[in-house]
Write a structure and sequence with these properties.
Layout: H1 2-19, E1 37-43, E2 49-55, E3 58-65, E4 70-75, H2 77-80, E5 85-92, E6 99-100, E7 104-105, E8 111-116, E9 124-127
Parallel strand pairs: 1-8
Antiparallel strand pairs: 1-4, 2-3, 2-5, 5-6, 5-7, 8-9
Length: about 130
């Protein structure tokens, strides 16, 4: 009777512990999530750019991209979760010609690629 109680308790703990683990589409051998949402920014502008994510009226700085360079940013689940609708803003250093994208719908695991042109109004993006 006592052994049965321990086995039942162990089974319940295993079930509840499994329910508390995060759900991921692709989990590695060690259980770490391999699925990430990334944003690659290719800067073809003569100015260095500071890149921001706009979501629900809040502007979050992602980082800087050097002139004629490329940077990759990992988007947190807080930025991707919920509606998954974001805007990206590129702010050239030393200029007031900011570029803001149209709303972009993304889901976890997507890769967003931005190509910032010398004329920032001609910049483009794609989602994979």
């Amino acid at each position: 009777m006592r052994i049965q109680r321990y086995l039942n308790s162990a089974a319940l703990i295993a079930v509840f512990a499994g329910a508390c683990t995060p759900m991921t589409k692709n989990a590695g051998v060690d259980g770490a999530a391999t699925e990430r949402t990334t944003m690659v920014v290719e800067n073809n502008n003569w100015s260095d750019m500071t890149v921001y994510i706009l979501r629900d009226g809040v502007r979050t700085r992602m980082g800087a991209v050097p002139s004629m360079g490329r940077s990759t940013f990992v988007l947190s689940s807080a930025l991707v979760g919920g509606t998954g609708e974001i805007r990206v803003q590129a702010d050239p250093l030393g200029s007031s010609n900011k570029w803001t994208s149209q709303p972009i719908l993304i889901v976890p695991g997507n890769q967003v690629r931005f190509r910032l042109e010398n004329n920032v109004a001609l910049s483009s993006y794609s989602v994979y």
